[in-house]
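Progress note, sequence design subtask.
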């Protein structure tokens, strides 16, 4: 895992590679990697902040924190490629707060979803308060009034989703001319969600003389373009290959006919006793699944865009503090949920965008813990499974609805009834389609 950590100085437009500085930096990092006892000390964090981090219960930095914090506290631009759940929030919050205190300029943190923005503000507040810094949360789905009142208090750090931030700038509730640090978190997701025009607009509002940190789970060309155009020789910090999943998540896929999904879900909910996050492709699906689960006698809530922001917050809080054991969500939650000890993620439907698979299952196995992810695929979705396997560079365990492990996707059985009949047929693999078995699935 450690050997997969790469630090590459970007040679962007007109960028100059300071080879000696770069090599000594790599040597320094290699030394740090070999040191299993690396703490937060020596990363450029000031003593008061170190005390705060210890009080928060964090003893050792995660790999992205270990790599990003020294670069960011030195005031350099950086592009951080890190898995969801890797501890990115602290990795940018600590340097942002330090820079705001030092430069006496504002910090601006942009995120794709309201839920993520709420979580980031919470983390920031748990540190920033000690410095007397004020933060403001500017997200859609809630009324402008309280946000305007908070803006009048001249906050030091703004945490926002792009659309609402632009609303406030357009209404002159806020000026971005004094921003000294800009963080673009989950940048790939922001672009996927169609925020490119808003991002470009915001980037024209903030001064050129600023520090920019960009974090992304993947590194599509559009992100490289932003780094080229809007950042100053950023250091690229990669904690693992883009698109890879957290190592410790045990993943499997059930090939199951659509009409048997609910039965399989019921079976799994009896088997696993902890908190479960279920992803549905559509908001109507999420509502229906949550309803069925409640009928089964479990506590469950829903998180999708048909719910108001207060309802969404209430659902998240209820799930976090154990009021509900199960949350059913659309991809709105793929990157927005941070619940301690989430035991299981179930993809009731495979994600429409393959990359979302990583983000969804990254809700479990956070910050080095182990986790479990189970996906349901209908027999026609074998191509989607192949895409997922390509994304994560892994062959997934494939099972029939009865839990029997299958050798390959192409030869997979599709339902339990047929499987049971075939099982008694001298152990031959069922052939539900009636066609001849085809060759083994290859990536
Ligand atoms: P994030 O990727 O920032 O959403 O963080 C994922 C989870 O890791 C959160 O629950 C954090 O509280 C936790 N976390 C962040 N940094 C550390 C650390 N150094 N040690 C242990 N847990 C951490």
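Output:
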């Amino acid at each position: 895992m450690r050997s997969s950590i790469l630090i590459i100085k970007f040679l962007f437009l007109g960028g100059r590679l300071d080879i000696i500085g770069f090599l000594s930096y790599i040597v320094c990092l290699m030394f740090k990697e070999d040191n299993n006892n690396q703490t937060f000390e020596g990363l450029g964090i000031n003593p008061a902040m170190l005390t705060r981090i210890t009080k928060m219960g964090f003893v050792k930095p995660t790999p992205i924190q270990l790599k990003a914090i020294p670069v960011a506290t030195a005031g350099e631009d950086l592009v951080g490629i890190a898995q969801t759940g890797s501890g990115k929030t602290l990795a940018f919050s600590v340097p942002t707060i330090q820079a705001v205190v030092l430069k006496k300029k504002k910090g601006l943190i942009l995120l794709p979803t309201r839920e993520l923005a709420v979580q980031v503000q919470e983390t920031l507040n748990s540190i920033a308060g000690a410095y007397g810094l004020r933060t403001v949360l500017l997200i859609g789905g809630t009324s402008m009034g309280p946000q305007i009142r908070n803006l009048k208090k001249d906050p030091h750090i703004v945490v926002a989703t792009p659309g609402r931030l632009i609303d406030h700038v357009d209404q002159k509730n806020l000026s971005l001319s004094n921003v000294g640090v800009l963080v673009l978190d989950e940048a790939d997701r922001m672009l996927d969600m169609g925020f490119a025009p808003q991002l470009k607009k915001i980037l024209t509002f903030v001064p050129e003389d600023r520090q920019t940190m960009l974090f992304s789970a993947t590194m599509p060309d559009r992100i490289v373009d932003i780094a080229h155009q809007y950042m100053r020789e950023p250091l690229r910090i990669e904690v693992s290959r883009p698109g890879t999943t957290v190592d410790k998540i045990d993943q499997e896929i059930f090939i199951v006919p659509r009409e048997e999904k609910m039965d399989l879900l019921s079976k799994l909910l009896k088997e696993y006793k902890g908190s479960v996050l279920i992803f549905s492709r559509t908001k109507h699906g999420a509502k229906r699944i949550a309803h069925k689960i409640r009928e089964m006698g479990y506590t469950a809530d829903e998180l999708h865009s048909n719910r108001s922001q207060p309802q969404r917050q209430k659902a998240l809080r209820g799930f976090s503090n154990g009021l509900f054991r199960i949350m059913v969500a659309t991809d709105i939650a793929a990157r927005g949920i941070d619940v301690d000890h989430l035991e299981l993620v179930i993809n009731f439907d495979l994600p429409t965008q393959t990359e979302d698979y990583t983000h969804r299952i990254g809700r479990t196995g956070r910050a080095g813990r182990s986790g479990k992810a189970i996906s349901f695929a209908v027999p026609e979705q074998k191509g989607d499974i192949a895409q997922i396997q390509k994304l994560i560079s892994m062959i997934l365990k494939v099972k029939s609805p009865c839990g029997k492990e299958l050798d390959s996707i192409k030869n997979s059985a599709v339902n339990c009834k047929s499987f049971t009949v075939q099982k008694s047929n001298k152990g031959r693999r069922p052939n539900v389609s009636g066609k001849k078995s085809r060759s083994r699935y290859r990536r």
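Confidence is low (pLDDT under 50) at residues 1-35, 418-443. Work on this subtask will continue into the next period as scheduled.
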